[in-house]
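ok so for the tutorial part 2 we go from a plain amino acid sequence to predicted structure tokens. step 1 is just haveing the sequence, like this:
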Amino acid sequence: MLILASQSATRKTLLQQAGLVFSTAPASVDERALETQALANGADARDIAALLAKSKAAAIAAIHPGALVIGADQTLALGTELLHKPTDRADAALQLDRLAGKTHRLHAGIALVRDDLLVWSSVETAELTMRSFDAGERDAVLDLEGEAVLGSVGGYRLEGPSIRLFETVIGDYFTILGLPLLPLLAALRQFAPELLAGVRQV
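step 2 — the prediction. this is what the tokens look like for a chain of 202 residues:
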């Protein structure tokens, strides 16, 4: 049995499009508490993405014996500063203004856990640069995006109208969406090939 420890519609869609059969069981972990403790111990944004992914997978694996659980999470680093999902449209606008004209990094952590064993984990990074834009352009994009941006760290969705605000993107598209799909599929081929039965290999 394969379980995705997330309620993200994007992650679910990516796994479905890859032909995987799985269930979902959103993990309940105190992300901010884990982040605060990790930062106090000297962790950076990349470390925190890995920690959150592992913690979510472990939480679901603990209540689903024998299942292979996928945990995934993402952090956004603007220099040494971490940004989180905006609380409302005004917060999304503030985040976009802070990112305008600058380069930031998205770190996507992913982990496979079975019972109390960490089977595999990885962190993939993408580097994104927003162009300089004015408030009118920003608000037009937020109008088009609607409530969807509230579920995305940074207040944007690269797969949506927010793409208008970007200048360059360096990195894997799936990493940017929050699920490094190619490394995950490679790990499944290695550690649980039976879960890929019927999935066409390319």
